[in-house]
Amino acid sequence: MLSKACTYGIRALILVTQKSNIGNKIGGKDVAKLTDMPEQFVLKILQQLSKKELIESVKGPRGGFYMKEEQQEVTLYQVVNAIDGDQLMTSCGLGFEECSDLKPCPLHSKYKSIKTELVKMLHNTTIKEMSDDVLEGNSFLKNIIKD
Predict the structure, then answer these.
(1) Which residues 6+ apart lie within 8 Å of 39 measured at CB?
(2) Which Pfam family, just one, is annotated for this protein (predicted)?
(3) In tens digits, what is the pLDDT along the chain, a chain of 147 residues?
(4) Staple partner for 96: which of 23, 67, 92, 127, CB 3.0–4.6 Å?
(5) What is the CA angle 141-143-146, rounded to 5?
(6) Is 24 helix (H, G, I), strand (E, B) or coil?
(7) What does the DSSP 8-state code read for residue 146?
């Protein structure tokens, strides 16, 4: 449902929030390494989020990315919209251009109710909440490989 760029962006923001909470900036290379994501893709996403003012960016040897306290309250809806636009909220579940209540595809009514719940969750979940869950050990941010 979410694009790869969007899922990477959310993961990156969680890590940037954690570093920001202890007064640190983090470089894009470190974000990529600590979250198992491709560096160039992560840098592009972080720059996009910076342009949308969801994170701050400082250039130079002591630079990196960080989030102000108020930016940490950004919702997943805002992040998804910044990266993917409103496609998730407005698109047809089967990808048809003309799908609507008046001209529904076979999946329309079922997908519409799921979409409604998804949008509610996106509006009600902040990056800070997700970051706190990771810090408290209730969830993880990096792929766990078991032998």
Answers:
(1) 28, 29, 32, 33
(2) Rrf2
(3) 789 999 999 999 999 999 988 888 999 999 999 988 999 999 999 999 999 999 999 998 888 999 999 999 999 999 999 999 988 888 898 989 899 999 999 999 999 989 999 999 999 999 999 999 998 989 888 755 443
(4) 92
(5) 135
(6) coil
(7) -
Q: Cα–Cα distance between 129 and 125 in angstroms, integer?
A: 7
Q: 20 by DSSP, 3-state: which? A: helix
d(CA 110, CA 102): 15
Where does the chain have alpha helices with state H?
4-21, 28-35, 39-51, 76-84, 87-90, 108-124, 127-135
Amino acid sitting at position 97:
E
Domains of the chain and CATH, by start = 4-135 (1.10.10.10)
Residues pairing with 26 in the sheet: 65
CB 65 within 8 A of CB 28: yes
Question: Angle 28-35/39-51 helices, nearest 10 degrees?
Answer: 120
SS3 72: helix
DSSP designation for 101: S
The contacts of residue 34 (CB under 8 Å, 6+ apart) are 15, 141, 142
